[in-house]
Design brief:
Keywords: Disulfide bond, FAD, Flavoprotein, NADP, Oxidoreductase, Redox-active center. This protein is an alpha/beta fold and about 475 residues long. It contains 15 helices and 23 strands. The strands form 6 sheets. Strands 1, 2, 3, 4, 5, 6 and 18 form a 7-stranded mixed sheet that branches.
Length: about 475
Amino acid sequence: MNKIITTDICVIGAGSGGLSVAAGAVQMGAKVVLIEKGKMGGDCLNTGCVPSKALLAAGHAAENARRASRFGVSTGPVEIDFGRAIDHVHSVIAGIAPHDSVERFEELGCTVIQAEARFTGPGEVIAGETTIKAKRFVIATGSRAAVPPIPGLETVCYFTNETIFENRVRPEHLIIIGGGPIGLEMAQAHHQLGAKVTVIEMGTILPKDDPDLVAVIRDRIKADGISLYEGAKTKEILDVNDQIRVVIEHQGIEITLEGSHLLLATGRKPNVENLGLKDAGIDYTDRGISVDARLRTSNKKVFAIGDITGGLQFTHMAGYDAGIVIRNALFRLPAKVDHSAVPWVTYTNPELAQVGLTEKTAREQYGDDIRVVTWDYAENDRARAEAETEGFIKVITKPNGRILGAAIVGRQAGELIGVWSLAISKKMKIGAIAGMIAPYPTLGELSKRVAGAWYTPSLFGEKTRKLVRFLLRFA
């Protein structure tokens, strides 16, 4: 017999965004129903951010051992147990999983239903044998790996991010189609763990990032021995004697590549299917659910957050969206999203981090009415001490010093970008960064130094020298 539950908020999807809404709302006194048909924690915990960073950590450890001789440390040949590296990945997932578990959310006070959810009307959802009527709904069903229509792809076995972390056998030759963050991170991780790797990218790698910084990543992965084909069209994929043959067209030449394993890293597709969105009066396309600045759908009782909206596909954005929804749904505050200070990081070695406008987008908006300043890692004493001098920081400002964007490529770039995200979100000027006290010696000094360099032309110019000479007359 169908059970009916009446609640304040019904959250569909227990990924990072859905869990944030559910946990926040129930602890603030709302009655919450949380529905998830798959694994709690969603893509980020099980097949995305967490496992990829864990595998990268294993790869970086192997690479650090190989390079230890630069410090006078001899390690001998580095031996890789690929299966144990995968064990590490799953141990990290297992360590985090209790925080996202059914048990924890039931202890918080949520009603958790493990079933597929489908709208049967504007204010009603059915999940399994339960009908849920709610004052507000939140759709947080995320996205999945997009599979491109490549001739012959159906004839071979291939990985996506949803399956690659189940592979316990080191690939002899891993071919990766897609040169975005996922493709490059997995390329470097597997190469550092002893696999031969080839990356095929239809355009340019990391197209959303500043090309000056991307050039550092490109040079590094090529120097490491990863084969990279940019501007290449994948024409056909074949299974030849249990090997995967990939035919590409690169610079007008047809090239045939042969590998043992294939990874597709060609973007994401929002999970809009089978939700009954039309029955709920919710507008959507193949690119996701349409939302306004308050993250409301065309049905104002229903919010959508995270990857399902087709916007910025970052775990931290889903968490940010959750805060916007809670303010709207619980407190009736007209909170709106602001994407001007959204940071993102590619966790290769070196890392690449970006927040705000790139130099290109800044010039498109402001023309030449901007200033660009850079500072090299090679000028940082901590980077020199650790023999990690590759990379630089770039900051874009208005002529009055207001910070528009910042980008960092180098060691721990993801950790360093936070101060610039704060500065942009608070509409700070670069003088605030130049005036802060940074501990010595740290990589954090890079931010202070690049900010100080912004003042160099005026501070050490002829006008300043004349002023100092004049004042010294009265000393």
